[in-house]
Amino acid sequence: MRNNILLACFIVVITIVSCDSRSVYDVYKSVPNTWHKDSVVSFKISPPDSIKPYNLFVNLRNTNDYKYKNLFLIVEMNFPHGKKVKDTLEYEMAKPNGELLGTGFTDIKENKLWYKEGVVFNESGEYTVNIQQAMRENGKVNGVVELEGITDVGFRVEKSENNK
Predict the structure, then answer these.
(1) What is the reported pTM?
(2) CATH of domain 22-159
(3) pLDDT tens digit sequence for 5-20
(4) Which of 144, 60, 49, 148 is CA-nearest to residue 102?
């Protein structure tokens, strides 16, 4: 009987791990009660290969406290030898009727947002990705200082379709 339970547990673990075979890096960092406009969430990545292409994603978890239709982020990638690439990105976070997008059955939604496609990490060494919220309200010059509703910020690197 005990061997059957161990075998069942082993099969479940293998099934879960094999379902995400494209993931190379997938890390989340928690955001305190609000995400301050000056707070930068950083990720250190050491890519396993300098020839193959990868797809990059910003992952977010948000609650029903998130009150905007979209989200603006500033994402900066710092290369090992000093090069920096900074992008201002906009993502849709809710349908026109206000229903939040993303997956999840509870009040926490998870969003996997495209950042870059087919990236080749051709410099050896550690890359740093910095993510910062850059929300603005319509008609206001100053940004949203304390963004509510974002609970976790993540970064994901996946093998691309051509890199299986």
Answers:
(1) 0.82
(2) 2.60.120
(3) 544 434 443 444 445 6
(4) 60
